[in-house]
Write a structure and sequence with these properties.
2 domains; mainly alpha; Helix Hairpins
C-alpha cells in the first residue's frame, strides 16, 4: 500500500499509534520498494513517531519508534530483507489457522540488543556540489597565496631559525646566506 511522498497525517495526542502488520506496512511501503524509498519512508515516519518530535505520550512514541527502527533495520539489510520476505511469503501460504501471530524477524535480536543501526546514505547532488565548491575554493586560495608571494618577491622556501641553529650546514645552503641571491630592495 504505497503512499504519496507527502508527509503522513499528524497524529492526535490522545490516540495510540497502531503499528501492526508487516514491516512494509509499518513503513507504509510496498514490498517492491527500493532501499532509497525505504530510507525516505523511515525518515519521514520517524519524524512523526520520535519521542522528541511528536505529541504522542512518551511511552507510546518510544514503542512506535522502536518498531519503526526494527522494521528499517531488517529491510535495509539486503540479506535480512531476503530472509524476511521469504518467511513472509511462507506465512502467507499457510492456512489462516496455522499462521503465527507475528512474522519472526531475522534481525530483530540485533535491533533489541541495542546494536547500532547503520543509517549511512549516499551523498545528494547538493552535497557533492558543496564539496566541489569547497575543493575549488581551496585550490584557488592556494594559487592566490602563492601568486601574491611570488609577485612580491617573497622567498618560497625559508629555513626556520631553529633549523639553522641545529644544522649550521643548512645556513650555507640557504638562499639567505648567498650574496648572489640577495633580494632586491
Amino acid at each position: 500500500m504505497p503512499l504519496s511522498s507527502a508527509s503522513p497525517d499528524p497524529l492526535p495526542a490522545d490516540s495510540a499509534p497502531i503499528l501492526e502488520g508487516t514491516y512494509y506496512e509499518l513503513l507504509r511501503m510496498p514490498p517492491t520498494a527500493t532501499a532509497q524509498q525505504l530510507r525516505q519512508a523511515f525518515r519521514r515516519l520517524s519524524k512523526c513517531y520520535h519521542p522528541d518530535t511528536t505529541t504522542l505520550p512518551a511511552a507510546v512514541a518510544a514503542q512506535a519508534f522502536q518498531q519503526l527502527r526494527r522494521a528499517y533495520a531488517v529491510l535495509s539489510d539486503p540479506e535480512a530483507r531476503r530472509l524476511y520476505d521469504e518467511r513472509l511469503r511462507l506465512s502467507r501460504a499457510l492456512p489462516a489457522a496455522a499462521r503465527p501471530t507475528s512474522v519472526p524477524a531475522p534481525a530483530a535480536s540485533a535491533a533489541r540488543s541495542g546494536a547500532p543501526v547503520s543509517l549511512r546514505r549516499a551523498l545528494s547532488g547538493g552535497e557533492w556540489f558543496a564539496l566541489l565548491l569547497l575543493a575549488v575554493a581551496l585550490a584557488l586560495s592556494l594559487v592566490l597565496g602563492i601568486g601574491v608571494a611570488w609577485a612580491r618577491g617573497t622567498e618560497m622556501m625559508r629555513w626556520p631559525s631553529w633549523w639553522t641553529d641545529l644544522h649550521p650546514s643548512a645556513l650555507s645552503a640557504s638562499p639567505q646566506a648567498d650574496p648572489d641571491h640577495a633580494p632586491a630592495s
